[in-house]
Amino acid sequence: MYEDCRRMGHAWEQIGDAPLGRELVERDVWLRCTRCTMLRAFDISPTGETMWPRYFPPDGYYYQGRQGGAPKKSDYRIAWLRDIIASRKSHRA
After folding, report:
1. Strand order across the beta sheet in which 28-33 lies
2. Which helix H or strand E contains 52, and what residues bound it?
3. Which residues pair with 44 in a beta bridge?
4. Number of structural domains, the chain?
5. What tens-digit pLDDT sequence spans the chain (93 residues)?
6. How far apart, in whole angstroms, are the C-alpha atoms of residue 4 and residue 38?
7. 0.85 cut: is pTM over it?
8. Beta strand 28-33 with 50-56: parallel, antiparallel or unpaired?
9. Taking every pair of C-alpha atoms in the chain, what is the biggest distance, in angstroms?
10. In the chain, helix, strand, coil percent, each to 5?
């Protein structure tokens, strides 16, 4: 369900205001991923630096149950590439 974001990163779009139940601070910027709906908020300093990033994942986003934690982004990309290669081979046969 969240494979595209895990492989390639999130596709962020700015949203106008803080989501319901979240306080809007003057320098807050809120983003939402167009694929998985992850929310990201951060402040912008007077010098233009991003500060205090916060993430609010959709239910079920974080990987559960693998000893050693979640796979790395490169692991998702390698598995994806293997699927693409296998699909191409099956179409040639």
Report:
1. 12-14, 28-33, 39-44, 50-56
2. strand 50-56
3. 50
4. 1
5. 688 888 888 999 998 765 555 555 556 788 999 999 999 998 887 788 888 899 999 988 877 666 667 778 788 888 888 888 888 888 776
6. 13
7. no
8. unpaired
9. 60
10. 30, 25, 50
